[in-house]
TrEMBL record:
Record: residues binding FAD: 3-18, 263-273
Coverage span on the entire protein: 212 to 514 of 514
Native source organism of the sequence: Ramlibacter albus
Names of required cofactors: FAD
Record protein name field: Alkyl hydroperoxide reductase subunit F
CC annotations in GO: cytosol; protein-containing complex
Length: 303
């Protein structure tokens, strides 16, 4: 069996692998797609010490760093269940099953998509999901934020300080964000809020986004907004469906962890976007991954 088995090969998993391997213990990492969300990222400018890089390049660097150590890397493996016992067992879709004394879960998350024409075509060409990451690319431009929950309203407030104008589009009749956020939003002169509006299309000139079309759900009329960017903020979904019934999950499906990354099952740790730890960023996921691996090591030497 592995001493530490990591499930997920994003920044959190890679950091956990490096930290575990450096303890000289038997370490494995199984993941569907090594690199994780970083593979879908164009530019990264907020991983301190690396002024500027590209997602695929960063993903390759993660894998190279892990390969430098004696780590059993199992790519293209999707976990489908976790069973606690004397040893912890992770079942894979392939039918195989891996056993370990401790497990670090780092299966990350995915942004919920609008599912409208233009969204996929203009992804990274005006369509964005992360205001902390891509906000500065829209300096002085016009953008829309789709989604009026906490993350949408936070994004609108954040972006209003950078871009020329923000149109906040909410499907329902009211914003769903906390009152304090709504009050702050109302004080901003360069934000227009549109309620009861269903986004139906992201338009572009073939190269980049040039507008967004929504349907006024009361009148049924279509409206077009001219802009350069669309931030989709309708939810970040943790990749934890496979854990239902094993570790404790929050109401949003995030793995509940303590300060050492320990889950509700002894010996099972978790880190990164899949967990309750706030602010989903590469540097945070990597730090949490390191922490969870140290948590697992701490567990191993005590048991
Ligand atoms: P992920 O990166 O999501 O990795 C999850 C890993 O688990 C992957 O290897 C995946 O294949 C694997 N996996 C999932 N389910 C299973 C399963 N059942 N079995 C086995 N393996 C599984 N953050 C920044 O800090 N700066 C940026 O500029 C930035 N830009 C971004 C741009 C985009 C378009 C996106 C989508 C995100 C961006 N982020 C950025 C956020 C950042 O990518 C994430 O916070 C970070 O990747 C989270 O790392 P993670 O290791 O927790 O999870």
């Amino acid at each position: 069996p592995f001493d530490v088995l990591i499930v997920g090969g994003g920044p959190a998993g890679a950091a956990a692998a490096v930290y575990a391997a450096r303890k000289g213990i038997r370490t494995g990492i199984a993941s569907e797609r090594f690199g994780g969300q970083v593979l879908d990222t164009l530019g990264i400018e907020n991983f301190v010490s690396i002024k500027e890089t590209e997602g695929p390049k960063f993903a390759l660097a993660l894998e190279e760093h892990v390969r430098h150590y004696d780590v059993d890397i199992m790519n293209l493996q999707r976990a489908k269940a976790l069973k606690a016992g004397e040893l912890i067992e992770v079942e894979l879709e392939s039918g195989a099953s891996l056993k370990a004394k401790s497990v670090v879960i780092t299966t990350g998350a995915r942004w919920r998509k609008l599912g409208v024409p233009g969204e996929e075509q203009y992804r990274n060409k005006g369509v964005a999901y992360c205001p902390h990451c891509d906000g500065p690319l829209f300096k002085g431009k016009r953008v829309a934020v789709v989604g009026g929950g906490n993350s949408g309203v936070e994004a609108a407030i954040d972006l209003a300080g950078i871009v020329a104008h923000v149109t906040l589009i909410e499907f329902g009749e009211q914003l769903r964000a906390d009152a304090v956020l709504q009050q702050k939003l109302a004080t901003l002169p360069n934000v227009t809020t549109v309620l009861n509006a269903q986004t139906t299309e992201v338009t572009g000139d073939g190269q980049r986004v040039n507008g967004l079309v929504y349907k006024d759900r009361a009148s049924g009329e279509e409206q077009r907004v001219e802009l350069e960017g669309v931030f989709v903020q309708i939810g970040l979904v943790p990749n934890t469906e496979w854990l239902k019934g094993s570790v404790d999950l929050s109401r949003h499906g995030e793995i509940v962890v303590d300060a050492k990354g320990q889950t509700s099952i002894p010996g099972v740790f978790a880190a990164g976007d899949a967990t309750t730890v706030p602010f989903k960023q590469i540097i945070i996921a990597a730090g949490e991954g390191a922490k969870a691996a140290l948590g697992a090591f701490d567990y191993l030497i005590r048991s």
